[in-house]
Amino acid sequence: MRKAKTIIHVNQHNIKANAKGENRPVLTCKSYKGNKYSNDIIIFDQDGREAARIIYSPETPLSCGAKVWIETFNDVQIKDPIDVKEATKTICKI
Length: 94
Fold this sequence. Notes:
The protein has helices spanning about 10-20, 85-94; strands at about 5-10, 25-30, 35-40, 40-45, 50-55, 70. The chain is α+β, with helices and mostly antiparallel strands. A three-stranded antiparallel beta sheet has the order 1-2-3, with no helix packed on it. A three-stranded antiparallel beta sheet has the order 4-5-6, with no helix packed on it. It is globular. It starts with 6 loop residues before the first strand and ends with a helix.
């Protein structure tokens, strides 16, 4: 049986508002049942184990400064990886 799709959206407008003193949730979990909002979303595998977690933590960002990130202990496949030099060329063309 096929499960319904769930889309997790990062709301950049709420991130910007929070930088100005607001306290809005920045992650939206969208499904056919409606929308739910949070700053911490756990994604489970088919066996009910935690597969990944999406975190918004403006008070304790990563050392690179990121305030939203995804953590997982599972294997990750990178589709069409681009090295740093190629990424810089692509970004500068935009």
